[in-house]
Sequence to fold (193 residues):
Amino acid sequence: MYERDGQDRIIVFTGPDGSGRKSVAEAVGQTFGMEKVVSYVTRDARPGEVNGQDYHFVTEEAFREMESELLQSVEIGGFRYGIRRSDVEEQLREKGCVYLVLNREGADRIKELYGDRAIRLFLYADRRTLEDRNRELGLAPDVIAARMRRYDEEMDYRSACEHAFGNYDLGDTVSRITETLEAYFQRGLVDKD
Fold:
């Protein structure tokens, strides 16, 4: 376990669907003791997703009512996703460092609002690997096809991010990201173990 030296940071994990953003983010979050800011979405939970942990699953009406409170809002596949400003600000005050798992639009908005305090980490893998991972999640063929249609566009975002990591081995990817983030935390992390 590491303890921060007081530098507030927002770590944004982004990349194509199936790149392992969530798994990597959770492992890196545990390493640094960071909390996740959970997004709101108007779709139903998919198999294995937990309300309040993966997303806050809300109705379209509830989403519209909170829209003025959102840092960003985007529609993907007919569903709306968003992050509440108060959730980010509250967790920054309490923890000093948080992470989010966002698409490129959300990552850009966070960077625009928080500048150098926001660090975008782009995760990726080749198309075939992502198709296989999406199938392993049990997603419907039409959902996988829609995700793959966005693959090239999503990959173009890699050069806009502060760092990019090929994600083929979870342990290796987490290790490389941990080393990268230590530099942002002013090398002031104290190993508490």
Q: What stands out?
A: The radius of gyration is 16 Å. The first strand starts at residue 2 and ends at 3.
